[in-house]
Amino acid sequence: MEGGVPKAKLQISIPKNFQRITAEDLASLLFKQRHSGVLVVDVRGPDFHGGHIPGALNLPFDDAVESKLEQLAKEHGRKDYIVFYCMYGQLRSPAAALSLIKALGTDAASQGNNVYVLAEGFKNWVKTFNGKKDDHIENFDRECWDEVESELVHINDQPSPRDLAGH
């Protein structure tokens, strides 16, 4: 404790060894190879509606995510690639991937599992493909984004129901 203020601690353990897939490699699977064994899962909340990867299943990371992921494991566990993404690929998507790996009964350290996290998240996907490949971003709404230092930054102006609880 410094100056009478306790330090905040992150309460979630995120493994460093997730399988990551780049935007280019995922785009190749989806658009060049048209691989049918790919499931893309967007774990963002309301910001999903400002644009997302085509065909992505929106499964917001919230209090009910564990049960949703158990159902996802039953329905799609045999896919060749299950790719999670959030805005930055740092917290929600790795946490969801870990939960799915547990639901599938595989070890997160195993390179044999089929669960991936999109490297650098949707922000990098937009940076890589916006204005270059029209079919790579579905329902892109420019009103939801702002340009900061020549990069698009998503503006989430829709609070989640959990944020509004009790207000």
Automatic annotation (TrEMBL):
<dbReference type="InterPro" id="IPR001763">
    <property type="entry name" value="Rhodanese-like_dom"/>
</dbReference>
<dbReference type="InterPro" id="IPR036873">
    <property type="entry name" value="Rhodanese-like_dom_sf"/>
</dbReference>
<feature type="domain" description="Rhodanese">
    <location>
        <begin position="34"/>
        <end position="134"/>
    </location>
</feature>
<dbReference type="Pfam" id="PF00581">
    <property type="entry name" value="Rhodanese"/>
</dbReference>
<dbReference type="GO" id="GO:0004725">
    <property type="term" value="F:protein tyrosine phosphatase activity"/>
</dbReference>
<protein>
    <submittedName>
        <fullName>Rhodaneselike domain containing protein</fullName>
    </submittedName>
</protein>
<dbReference type="GO" id="GO:0005737">
    <property type="term" value="C:cytoplasm"/>
</dbReference>
<dbReference type="GO" id="GO:0005634">
    <property type="term" value="C:nucleus"/>
</dbReference>
